[in-house]
Design goal:
With about 575 residues, the chain is mostly helical. It is built from 24 helices and eight strands.
Amino acid sequence: MGKNTFSKGLCTTALLVTTLLSACGGSRTPPVMPTSPPPPVASTAPVAVKPTTPTAPQRPTQDPIAALIANAEMHFEAGLVELKAGRLSKARAEFDRAVGVLVESPGGARSEPRLRAEYDQLLNRIAALEATALRQGDGFSETRSEPAAIDDLLAVATFPRATTTTKSAVAEELEVAAYDLPVVSNDKVLSYVELFQGGLRNFLSEGLSRGSQYLPRIREVFKREGVPLDLAYVPLIESAFKSAALSRARAKGMWQFQLPTAKDYGLKYNWFIDERSDFEKSTEAAAKHFKMLANMFNGDWTMALASYNVGQGFVLQAIKKAKTNDYWQLSSTTKFLPRDTREYVPMIWAAIIIAKNPAQFGFEIDTKPPLAYDVVRVPDAISLSTVAEWIDSTVEVLKDLNPELRRNTTPTGEHELRVPVGAKPVLETKLAAADPATFTTFIRHTVKSGETIATIARRYKITAANLADANSLKLNAKLALGQALLVPGATAATVTSARPSTPTLTPAAPATASKPTPADPAKAVTYRVKSGDTLFAIAKQFDVTIDEIKRWNRLSGSALGIGDKLTIYRR
């Protein structure tokens, strides 16, 4: 009720009460005439208005085909993310879901032009990934190397003269710093200090940052072996602390070992691993090598460093020719030592001077915490993608921790695998419960009469070079009757399924407790794999399961080769 109406009603009620009281009493007091009501006062209260229902805007009708395509693309993109992380099983699962969205749609994947176009495009993209990234990631393509820093550093042609500021900074540093090497400051060393502060500033800064995670472990090994701790900075020049560094001279790893020297110190090299890239084992080998060189040159670490670069045999010959064992005299002319060695030692001294106190030379180093990891003993060859999925990590993380692995798989037999801190119990539990088929069984070929590396390679559809490399043989090596050869890229599963050219390390599907589906020969059909086919799509087409197709055709993985024949039993 409004305020004005309420006031009028109140006044009327008062008038009636006054009249009644007058009638009942004895007094003849004339009735009081009502006064005119006061003019209405404007109200500030909101007036209740009956709301009107607004007309809702007409929503556009959702395009069901566009929604299906968007859903399929979402799963495909998720598969790419998993693939990039090295989680191959999860990548394949997402790709199968992408295809499944279209196959399971009303009317099927070819019921509408846009759907059909998306389906064909999706299959082609997945097929391309299966043929390249997925199979390469399964362990048979070699891990890529990267150029060694030493090659670029030794190619420097212009050397700046040291400024007064640089000379003063070096002089101050040499007065206060404690070195365990006979660091020398001369024009050549000062020139490199100037160069590292100028054109090579980023190189040195990035190398020191990367090396900070390895230096504590290197110093620990060198201290144990009785090697000067300042030599821990040698990898800064050799490789910029990169375990995958490979020089033009084929030296490999953080410490840039040649294969013969590496083997002298027990570093293994085969188709699976190259321990020159193992940052722990190569550091131990480097410490032993430095000790040997120092003993050879009576504790002269300058000559030991020169020998580390060019080899002790060459340096001994130079000493014999020059009739002096003073490095600076040997390097003052082009007669005795090669240019690389004449530049190498002053470069090392300059790097050590800066590395001991980077702030003195204007460097701000992004120091990393010491590398930390757990070690798990893996019983046999297993794909890194499988391990990554088990411990919720990535293949890249495992490769960074295990740079000695040349493939995306561990070697046959036992191997100590580094994993992120905290992942050890998870991996050990998974390994203990793993189906034997999870581990990769490689084919070993027994050489028969008349066989050569070339003929065996053709049989398994691999290159002769890969076969020779896998068995540490030369291409023209003569094979002995009965000799066992490892066939790279071929597993028991790929050979059994008559597909030696399609290598895969995909773990076999876990065995199920259910009984195998009866295979009625009368219902068997042969299906030839086409471009873009996946097990998911084929299973849907014939209304069977993926596991059944794998069982019928003895497949361990999901990779298919164009032209492969699959036996399918219709229901």
